[in-house]
Amino acid sequence: MAGLTTGGPNVDVSLLYEINALARHAPGWFDRGVALVGGYGLPLAMILLVLWCWRGARRQDETAAAESFAALVWAPLAASVALLVNVPLRGFVARPRPFVQHEGLEVLGGMAGGPGAGYSFVSDHATLMMALGVGVFLANRRLGLVGIGLALAEGLCRVYLGVHYPTDVIGGFALGTAVVLLLAPLAMAALTPLVRALARAPRAGRLVRAGERVVARPVELAQRPAESDLAA
Question: What is residue 96's three-state secondary structure?
C-alpha cells in the first residue's frame, strides 16, 4: 500500500497541513479545548444523544418502539464490529502517523511520534463515531443527523490535532457507515423479535416502552345526565 505510506505532495497531505496549521495560529487554550472536545466531549455528546433517542423511542407505539430500540441496540454493536474489522485493516495498510512522516506538524493531544504511535489508516475515532451516528439515524432521522454531525466534527478534530490524514478520517466514516448499513437487515431481523419479547416482560419491558398513562374521567362529568335526558 505504498500510495498510503509515502505521503508526497498530494491533496491529502496539503489538507492536513492547512487544517493543522490553524493550531499554530490559535491560542493555547483553544488547542487544549479542541483536544479535550475531540477526546472526551464529542464521544460523551454522542452517548447522551443515544440516551435521548432511547427516551423518545420509549414513547412510541409498540411496533415503532421495538424497531427504534432494536436500532439503538444495533448502533453500539455495529460500532464494535467496525472497530474489530479495523484491526486487521490497519495492520494490512500499515500507514504511519502523519507526524512520523512529515515535519512541521503541530501535534496536540499528548501523542508523540515513534514506533509506539501506531498506524493511522483508518481512524478508530471516526469509525466509532460515524457508526454510532448512522445507527442513531436508523432509529430517528432528526437525531441521526445530529449524530452524523458530531462524527464529522470528531474527524475534523483528529486532523486538526495532527494525528490523522483526512483520508484516514474519510476511511473511518466509510467503514463505520458500511458496517451499520450492510449488516442492518440481518441485525434488525435478529434483534427486533428479541426486543418485542423484552417489551412483553413485566419489568424489563419498561426499557422498550414507557408506562402508558391512564387519564381518569372526572366523576362529575361521568355522572352528569345528558341534555337529551333532561329534555325528556
Answer: strand
